[in-house]
């Protein structure tokens, strides 16, 4: 595991319905809307960065984005798409799964959040295919619409088997910072 001390405040998420991030030095929590250094709003469940507030840096906020494996990116994006559908639902035990189209929903979200998820990294011509491959080869995490609807073409619809963000593990993230950004 890395030295990252970033967590999403579960109580704050439940109480206020917006993600928060904790400064790695002073442990103060900051709402997504109060952050100035991120290229896009903070995503729910995003624990793959290290944030330092402007008070601790004595200049401006900074974050270090840790490299995420594609499986982590796809799970994080699906989790956030599901949260947008049910913004008041935190972690229901029994719920209808919301399905999303891999290209129109998942790839569009990743494209919009590219600089947030992969700062400084160029898009390859085949990154869409990587998303499709991640979805179809990780049935322990992702559930195909075909399995539910049993109709041709429904394999383009996907959801999470468990309504939860990705956990930090050695196989899901790089051990080294990916990108440092000062604002």
From TrEMBL:
Alphabetized Pfam families for the sequence: ASH2L-like_WH
Domain Set1/Ash2 histone methyltransferase complex subunit ASH2-like winged-helix: 77-145
Signal peptide residue numbers: none
Organism domain of life: Eukaryota
Listed name of the protein: Set1/Ash2 histone methyltransferase complex subunit ASH2-like winged-helix domain-containing protein
């Amino acid at each position: 595991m890395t030295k990252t001390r970033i967590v999403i405040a579960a109580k704050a998420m439940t109480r206020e319905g917006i993600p928060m991030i904790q400064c790695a030095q002073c442990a103060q929590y900051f709402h997504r809307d109060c952050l100035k250094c991120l290229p896009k709003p903070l995503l729910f469940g995003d624990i793959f960065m290290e944030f330092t507030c402007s008070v601790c840096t004595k200049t401006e906020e900074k974050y270090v984005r840790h490299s995420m494996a594609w499986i982590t990116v796809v799970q994080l994006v699906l989790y956030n798409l599901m949260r947008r559908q049910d913004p008041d639902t935190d972690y229901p035990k029994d719920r209808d799964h919301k399905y999303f189209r891999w290209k129109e929903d998942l790839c569009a979200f990743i494209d919009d959040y590219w600089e947030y998820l992969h700062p400084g990294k160029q898009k390859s011509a085949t990154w869409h295919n990587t998303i499709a491959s991640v979805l179809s080869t990780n049935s322990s995490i992702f559930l195909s619409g075909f399995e539910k609807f049993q109709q041709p073409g429904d394999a383009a619809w996907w959801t999470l088997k468990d309504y939860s963000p990705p956990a930090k593990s050695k196989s899901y993230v790089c051990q080294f910072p990916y990108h440092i950004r000062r604002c």
